[in-house]
Write a structure and sequence with these properties.
Elements: H1 5-16, E1 21-30, H2 35-46, E2 51-55, H3 62-71, E3 75-79, H4 103-121, E4 127-128, H5 140-146, E5 150-151, E6 165-166, H6 185-200, E7 210-214, H7 221-236, E8 240-242, H8 245-254
Parallel strand pairs: 1-2, 1-7, 1-8, 2-3, 3-4, 4-5, 5-6
Helix pairs in contact: 4-5
Bound molecules: zinc ion.
């Protein structure tokens, strides 16, 4: 099993510079209690690492609640769109919330989705994760009205969502363009370096956590190993720290 020596080296260097790299972990597309979901939750529990699970409300099953309830206190529920359906015009990048959609339809959908998750899991999520990490800023008022305080996409997005807590992801190890599997080492290392450099250079607040993004339903063994190694190494390293997404949002919200 690979042991990600390059991740250790990055953290060593970061620690030698007197820094602590802050991470958070988001996993997308949960709807049901599958063996893959159980494996994901077991990794989080084994290493006692906070996990944010982005659940698709329209297709979420009741038994998901049983699974999550038994899992761990450090689990943050996020709403992953509504039905994970693409509404983008042909030729454009996939999005459930492209600009042309009727804001009233979107608002109703967001409210309905959040109410469904609240019914299933007992809590209404504060964090919204748009499918394909895309949502047009025109829907910021609808998000707010539905009860969301925070938004999570990919790579330090800003703009158009004033007043929202932004908690983005940065390291996506799935080789989507190649049909799946683990990306090459230089790809995920590049994502990590970019995120760290932005924080070191002041373009992003230094304490803004770097997001590890996983998709439990598509993981092969190489991806499972990568995720587990990443989680273990950050947990064990003195220059690594895990941030609880729920706590982060709550704390930033009141500031
Ligand atoms: Zn998704």
């Amino acid at each position: 099993m690979a042991d990600l020596p390059s991740l250790r080296r990055v953290l060593d260097e970061w620690g030698e510079a007197g820094q602590v790299a802050r991470f958070w972990w988001r996993d997308d597309d949960a709807t049901a209690r599958t063996p893959a979901l159980e494996r994901l939750l077991a990794i989080a529990a084994d290493y006692d690492v906070p996990l944010c699970l982005a659940v698709i409300p329209a297709t979420a099953e009741l038994e998901l609640n049983i699974c999550l309830g038994a899992a761990m206190p450090q689990l943050t529920l996020a709403q992953h769109g509504f039905a994970h359906v693409n509404h983008a015009p042909d030729g454009e990048k996939k999005s459930e919330y492209p600009a042309h959609r009727d804001p009233a339809d979107v608002a109703a959908e967001l409210r309905h989705g959040r109410a469904r998750l609240q019914g299933l899991c007992g809590v209404g999520p504060a964090l919204f994760v748009p499918p394909w990490n895309r949502i047009d800023p025109a829907f910021a008022p609808a998000l707010r009205a539905a009860g969301f305080a925070a938004l999570s996409r990919f790579t330090d997005r800003e703009g158009g969502f004033k007043g929202f807590v932004m908690l983005d992801t940065h390291i996506d190890p799935v080789a989507w363009r190649d049909g799946g599997g683990l990306v090459a080492e230089e790809v995920w290392l590049g994502m990590l370096h970019t995120a760290l450099e932005k924080r070191a250079g002041g373009r992003v607040a230094p304490d803004k956590p770097i997001g590890l993004l996983s998709h439990h339903l598509v993981h092969d063994e190489a991806l499972w190993n990568f995720i587990e190694d990443f989680v273990r190494i950050v947990t064990d390293h003195p220059a690594g720290e895990w941030i609880d997404a729920g706590e982060y949002v709550t704390m930033r919200e009141v500031l």
